[in-house]
Amino acid sequence: MLGLGKNTSKVKAILFDLDNTLMDFMKMKERAIDAAADAMIDAGLPLSKEEILRGIYDLYEVYGIEDQTIFNKFLEKKMGRISYKILAAGIVAYRRVKEGYVEPYPHVTSTLLKLKGRGYDLFIISDAPTLQAWTRLTGMHLDYLFNEDSVITPEETGVKKPDELPFKKAIEKLKLKPEELLMVGDDPRKDIAGANKLGIITVLARYGCLTEFDSSKSEQKADYEIDDLGELLKLLPSKCQK
Fold first, then answer.
1. Whole-model pTM?
2. How many angstroms separate the CA atoms of 71 and 91, rounded?
């Protein structure tokens, strides 16, 4: 664990990003899209797999990784129309892989259970749509650790990280001070930057960073960096004084 030594003794609640912090979202996404490409080819799409994958990821760059109609957009762009036979094949294959893969990173479940047992409130601040966030938590069998009010998404705030509003919403709901919160996330530009603005203690989940991360070159520095979620147990005391 790397850290600047900021005091965590006052922390009473922990905010988590979801994708690439609690679960390996991009690996799941890549496998699901790969399966969808094969299925669309089998259904009659006259393109190579490389063309399909490149086209889909290019559209994700434009519309965002959470776009729910990306296959529609792809077929319209490549074919000038939507073939519902091909679309259905892609969607079914995508969902089959996605639903079968939803698993937490190593030590996530045990760490959350221990933190909950130590008296910490657990919150999620995600840029995913609300239903998708809950679907992933349920698929990982982590939903029972969170109540409906402790999952904050853009559908509630109208904005995404690093905007301050999702973090302010957590502060408001928890009725705590910023220094009593700790934010764990994989994206320095969103999770860390947003929490830093308000003085929330920040922890970078290095294991979830999509590209190799050099903290010395980042403008957004976290108070701590971890390579495994279980390291939080060393950072936070055994009992939370509330």
1. 0.81
2. 8
